[in-house]
Amino acid sequence: MSKKAMVYIQSGGPTSVINTSLYGAIREGQKHPEISKIYGSLNGIDGLLNDNLIDLGAEDDETIELFKQTPGAVLGTTRHKLPKDLHHEEYSRIIETLKKHDIGYVFVNGGNDSMDTCYKLSLLAKELNLDIKVMGVPKTVDNDLAETDHSNGFGSAAKYVINTIREIIADAQSYKNYKAYIIEIMGRNAGWLTAAVDLLPEEARPDLIYLPENKFDVEKFVANVDKIYAKKGNCIVAISEGIEFERDESNVKIDSFGHKQLGGAASDLGKLITSRLGIAVRAIELSLPQRAYSFLTSKVDSDEACICGAEAVRHAVEGMTGHMIAIKRVSDKPYAVKYEPVDISKIANVERKVPISMMKDDSHMDPSFRAYCEPLIQGELAVTMENGIIKTAVLKKVRV
Amino acid sequence: MSKKAMVYIQSGGPTSVINTSLYGAIREGQKHPEISKIYGSLNGIDGLLNDNLIDLGAEDDETIELFKQTPGAVLGTTRHKLPKDLHHEEYSRIIETLKKHDIGYVFVNGGNDSMDTCYKLSLLAKELNLDIKVMGVPKTVDNDLAETDHSNGFGSAAKYVINTIREIIADAQSYKNYKAYIIEIMGRNAGWLTAAVDLLPEEARPDLIYLPENKFDVEKFVANVDKIYAKKGNCIVAISEGIEFERDESNVKIDSFGHKQLGGAASDLGKLITSRLGIAVRAIELSLPQRAYSFLTSKVDSDEACICGAEAVRHAVEGMTGHMIAIKRVSDKPYAVKYEPVDISKIANVERKVPISMMKDDSHMDPSFRAYCEPLIQGELAVTMENGIIKTAVLKKVRV
User: Fold this and answer.
1) DSSP per residue over A60-118, as a string?
2) A61 a catalytic residue
3) Which residues of chain A have a CB within 8 Å of the CB of B14?
4) Which domains does chain B have, with CATH numbers?
5) A196 and A369 Cβ atoms separated by less than 8 Å
6) d(CA B183, CA A152)
7) Where do runs of H (alpha helix) occur along chain B?
């Protein structure tokens, strides 16, 4: 039996369970004698490009246990996109690092952009006939990865969004003051996270819900706010950051994957409502905390993230490459899933949007959405605190 | 023994423990045969002005237990300020309601503006020789009430701010991307909440901390960001919403107490940094969730809020009026407090700011601040969830 090292890559935005998948992969890796060493690539693919790897075997057991509640991406992440041409010098640098450390297993944990990285690495290994297995682990709060029922990270982010908006609505309902609230939720092209607010009880839910999957009609929006406000004396609106309308382009930036970096939509729409209807508006951007909050991690999401990390390692050791571990739902009630590797070429760069069948109108999702989403936010993860502050893993980061 | 009803008023912004003080007051009220009925005034003083009271005795025991984890202000609140002239018709309406329901005890839970309401009601009772005891219960996340070591609600808000910024910093540290982060925290004139971030460990804390107590020097701020960014490749700044600098006045609104409603400072400073230094900035407003989040309630804060509510009732039944229950610290280590009524005239409309002795420089507080603040964020409150969503009290609100 030839022994080879494995390297784990975290890519794209952090989620509440990004480090839980890493935890699962490490624990699985430790079980297999085929794996000689367990390395972490610092800052995503940058670690392979620049030979910045750490020995995860050098970390204390307690540190690794804490991964399950540590915010951020403990290895660091990146949004770097690999070039199309497999003969590009970047690939030579990656191969050099892989060979130098005798790496036979590469794991990429990320969303659809990161699965592109995963795909290219698997093509590279194939083209050069390298004995390197490359496997993907799903991760994105946007929940837009194809070929999987849902993605690790989504359930926890949804749970955060739902409960935080519950708090905001309770705050808003405490006043007789007449005001509208526009709450902006992450979701560039897919509105899964925004749709999740539909799970709130009728007496404490947004009045209006706008996903990027539907064409956003500004006139209809203004009319809806006007009508609800006239009736209730307030109006609470949940919007995806990615809904499109004519706006101040100075707020929009482009990231290195070529995507617009959004934000500011609630503020822009708030100004519009105030100028058109004369209503005071509080614009609230849920911002960074929504994607990786440790205090509202879904237990279901956490458990699944751990299993996906482990399954990727198990399949790689058995010889599989070029696949991502997908979650396939077996049933809604009782909730049950199985884990199946899916060809990565079907996933890279593909976006899975909320299907029209799950939408109803500007205020509600179809009941099928609740059946889909509700199981994903179940269960709480106990968080260890120290002096009132979350206890987090502090890595030694021993370079190899 | 003459029996009289009590009425409880929630006033000003919600906190994580605003309903916990109400809980304490109800439980104490139930112990005293002198109290015939326990009423809640809907939407603060508005309930007395418009005879909108509910019978809290009609609520289920389970509902009242849930007050301790229910977000928002369960009775509703207001920012209405009573007129100076005690002969104003508003007072006639209040007296009418008090007499109609045979009310002998009035409790006002709020901050320094609300203690003005409390003060005026106590003066009114005295001037008209009414047998009505009026007592204050401290409450403000701003922690700016005079004559008390700290205010109910501050510890939990501080705990939220500290832990949420810990999350944001972990997210920021996951990237090599060069960026500055400006995080805006509540605090109109007092920077207690912003100062709380000083409790974070050195490796995961904001680089710069700006309180409204210090004159904000824009040039020094820009120079500081420039220096830190050049050294670290990023810069994380925590600011109080109330810091003053020349800014877009179109963002500023005035509330009914005559205070500026703030917000947007981080965004304005971000634009300044980008234009002056060419650095990408992510502006994050912690916004409404910071003041009343149920998931990071400090156990110390919760317990104290409950006791303050109860103590106000106990003293009123013993004949006291015109006082607020103040928390007096006996020692830092071990943390110990006692509860003492303080003449409300010393508290109404007075703002207690962070003392200069607790400040050090633009990056750190004096160690005396940690000794002061750390005990207030200790302990966690277990939250009951239902299907992944916080379980909250739903009141019957039986009108009387």
Assistant:
1) -HHHHHHGGG--S-TT--------S-TTSHHHHHHHHHHHHTTEEEEEEEESHHHHHHH
2) no
3) 170-171, 174
4) 4-140+294-351+379-390 (3.40.50.450), 154-291 (3.40.50.460)
5) no
6) 28
7) 18-31, 46-49, 61-66, 89-100, 112-127, 154-173, 192-195, 218-232, 265-277, 289-292, 299-317, 367-373
A6 contact partners, CB below 8 Å, separation of at least 6 = A25, A29, A35, A37, A38, A39, A103, A104, A105, A106, A107, A313, A316
Å between B164 CA and nearest CA of chain A: 7
Which residues of chain B neighbour A298 with C-beta distances below 8 Å?
A: 388
Which chain A residue's Cα is nearest to B378?
A388
Helix (H, G, I), strand (E, B) or coil at B199: helix
B167: nearest CB among A159, A284, A293: A293
Residue A38 pLDDT more than 80? yes
Amino acid letter at B331? Answer: S
Q: Please check the confidence at residue A248 and state whether its pLDDT lies above 70.
A: no
Beta-carbon separation of B78 and A175 below 8 A: yes
Contact in structure between B103 and B115 (CB atoms under 8 Å): no
* Cα B372 from Cα B381, distance rounded (Å): 21
Q: Where are the alpha helices (DSSP H) in chain A?
A: 18-31, 46-49, 61-66, 89-100, 112-127, 154-173, 192-195, 218-232, 265-277, 289-292, 299-317, 367-373
For residue A255, pLDDT beyond 90: no
CA A384 to chain CA mean position, Å: 23
Four-CA torsion A112, A117, A122, A124, nearest 10 degrees: 150
Chain A residues whose CB is inside 8 A of the B204 CB are 392
Nearest to B295 by CA among A183, A65, A70, A390: A390
Q: Starting at the edge strand that comes first in sequence, how are the strands of the sheet with B179-185 ordered?
A: B208-210, B234-240, B179-185, B281-285
**In this predicted structure, which of A33-37, A78-82, A304-308, B396-400 has the lowest mean pLDDT?**
A78-82
Q: How far apart are CA A376 and CA A18, in angstroms?
A: 16
Among B73, B287, B378, select the one facing A284 at the smallest CB separation: B287
* The two three-digit tokens of residue A196, written as one number: 């999740």
Of B10, B176, B378, the CB nearest to A78: B176
A216-242 tens-digit pLDDT: 999 999 999 999 999 999 999 999 999
Structure tokens at A278: 């004369």
Q: Which residue of A lies nearest to B163 if distances are taken between CA atoms?
A: A389
Q: Hey, what are B77's tokens?
A: 């609140």
* Chain A nearest C-alpha distance from B129 (Å): 32
Mutate to test the interface with B, among A16, A175, A186, A261 (most CBs of B within 10 A): A175
pLDDT of residue A246: 85
* B278 closest CA partner among B217, B231, B225: B225
Among candidate residues A116, A142, A198, A207, the one labeled active-site is A142
pLDDT along chain B (400 residues), means of 10: 93 96 98 98 98 98 98 94 95 98 98 94 96 98 97 98 97 89 95 98 95 95 97 95 81 55 83 95 96 96 98 98 98 97 94 96 96 98 96 97
**In the numeric block, which tokens belong to residue B18?**
């605003």
Catalytic residues of B: 142
Q: What is the pTM of this model?
A: 0.96
Gap between the Cα atoms of B68 and B75, Å rounded = 14
